[in-house]
Design brief:
The protein folds into two domains: 165 residues, no CATH class; 63 residues. Strand 1 and strand 2 form a beta hairpin. The protein is mainly alpha-helical. It has nine helices and two strands; from the N terminus they run αααββαααααα. 66% of the residues lie in helices and 3% in strands.
């Protein structure tokens, strides 16, 4: 396939988890961070997900574009609230840039938004990098999800290695034609030249997939049985217990004891 498939071929305990358990793991880490507005609690949520990422031994090179996109989005999520004029009586102005004033309330709100966005995105990469899209689609159908939904999920995950493969081919073509990529200016120029062929070739491959699906009568037969069986093993149950405990702890801390709430962020 492409360098993206390098992460599929590993055999860590995270790779061996049932795809249904991984889906639950993502849902949990998309939900629990929304309970809290205090930055320290969000850091704890990120710290709990970090060992899963490390033990999966994910090679960051094939997904560096996605990681950079998450980083850029997180930085933007911090910058905009920092300069927003929150109506908070005890706010402290950190510095000014012309008419814009950066406040402590805005900065704290930005950190909260950045972590709330980054945690689910990074956790989703664990699923993307450790689960074959076809296996995920089969597991979703085992959960009685509609075939159309399962196929859309598989198609969306297939797009990441597809785009990565096309981008690799475009870069190789640029290298053969002597397009320089070293340095910020050259890299930006090479990227601008690559955008059009990247979009055209990606759409062309997507159209090929669509024609293949239509020619085989997608949706006419309800395939429900496979040679591959999905059974929960010991680590699957351990992960299920962890997810349930994490959700319960989050609900108790937030709504039972009222912890994890930053008054400045709420009033802002």
């Amino acid at each position: 396939m492409s360098d993206f498939a390098v992460n599929y071929e590993k055999n860590t305990w995270v790779h061996r988890l049932d795809p249904r358990v991984k889906l639950l793991f993502i849902v949990v880490f998309c939900t629990v961070p929304l309970f809290f507005t205090r930055f320290s609690y969000l850091v704890v949520c990120a710290a709990l997900a970090a060992p899963i990422w490390i033990s999966a031994k994910i090679d960051p090179r094939p997904i560096k574009g996605l990681l950079v996109a998450i980083l850029v989005f997180s930085v933007v999520a911090i910058i905009f609230p920092t300069f927003y004029n929150y109506d908070y009586p005890n706010k402290i102005i950190l510095f000014r840039i012309g008419p814009l004033a950066a406040t402590n309330v805005g900065f704290i709100s930005g950190l909260m938004l950045a972590f709330r966005a980054a945690i689910p995105a990074v956790v989703a990469l664990i699923l993307i990098c450790t689960t074959d899209p076809a296996a995920l689609a089969k597991a979703m159908m085992k959960m009685k999800m509609p075939m159309s939904v399962s196929f859309m999920m598989m198609g969306a995950l297939r797009m990441f290695p597809l785009v990565s493969e096309v981008m690799g081919n475009v870069r190789t073509a640029q290298l053969i034609r002597g397009v320089k990529s070293g340095g910020t200016k050259n890299a930006w120029h090479a990227f601008k030249l690559a955008v059009t062929p990247l979009m055209i070739n990606s759409l062309r491959k997507s159209r090929t997939t669509g024609l293949a699906v239509e020619s085989k009568g997608f949706g006419m037969h309800a395939w429900k049985e496979y040679y591959q069986e999905y059974k929960l093993h010991t680590m699957d149950y351990v992960m299920l217990i962890f997810c349930i405990a994490f959700v319960v702890a989050g609900i108790v801390l937030r709504y039972g004891f009222g912890l994890g709430v930053n008054p400045m962020v709420l009033q802002a």
